[in-house]
Amino acid sequence: MPLSLWLSLAAVCAMGAVSPGPSLALVLRHTLGGGRAPGVTAAVSHALGVGLYALLTVWGLGALVARQPALFQAITWLGAAYLAWLGIKALRAGRGAALAAEGVATTPRQAAREGLLVALGNPKLILFFVALLSQFVSPEMSVAAKALIVATAMIIDGGWYALVAVGLSHGRVLPWLQARAHWIHRITGVLLLGLAIRVVWGPL
Q: Chain-wide mean pLDDT for the chain?
């Protein structure tokens, strides 16, 4: 793959990674609830989900999913339901955080599960990869070039959210965030519920 083409690919992946959404809210919640380890774990597992969608795209299966209304609708509804469930959990944690710190605790295992499921349950990722990432794939492309596309998407996504988790877990930042945990969880919960409603009722 020419360097100029790869730089364009990296820019597209970076644009998708840094855009605010449920992934950022997830990393924030797990970093706030458990510190650096759960936050970075959520970032890495989210990157694995992104890598799976990138792999489907280079195989041509992403476009196939997008052309199957029933399958795509099922993914959309399941994704919206999962985002809504996470939003309700965050709102409930927000009420408890003002009284007890353990009410918002999280673990790396929980972060890994939710990071992967948020990525897989986000129909915006399918549209993103089909509309943008597929432009970099050609029928004559080598296996190595396709692997580079998948690796680029995973590394940029995981690297960005890992940096977010590390930055938020800094010794001066994390105590400030934890002191306001109940408000942050409430804001995160409202954001996740709003995204779930948007997935169901409005265009992504």
A: 76
Q: Nearest-CA neighbor of 114 among 18, 188, 13, 14?
A: 188
Q: pTM for the complete prediction?
A: 0.68
Number of domains making up the chain = 1
The torsion angles phi and psi of 60, rounded to 5 degrees, stand at 85, 5
pLDDT digits (tens, 9 = 90+) for 32-70: 778 888 889 999 999 999 998 888 888 876 566 657 777
From 17, 40, 26, select the one nearest 125 (Cα to Cα).
17
- Residue 128, number of CB atoms within 10 A of its CB: 23
Taking a C-beta distance cutoff of 8 angstroms, is the pair 13, 57 a contact? no
**CB burial readout 12-35, b (16+ within 10 A) else e:** bbeebbeeebbbbbbbbbbbbbbb
Residue-by-residue DSSP string for 2-23: -HHHHHHHHHHHHHHHHS-SHH
Both tokens of 86, joined, read 């996470």
Q: Are the C-beta atoms of 182 and 98 separated by less than 8 Å?
A: yes
* Cβ–Cβ under 8 Å, residues 183 and 94: yes
> Are 41 and 111 contacting, i.e. CB atoms less than 8 angstroms apart?
yes
Q: What is the residue whose two structure tokens read 């349950």?
A: 121
Dist CA 64 CA 48 (whole Å): 21
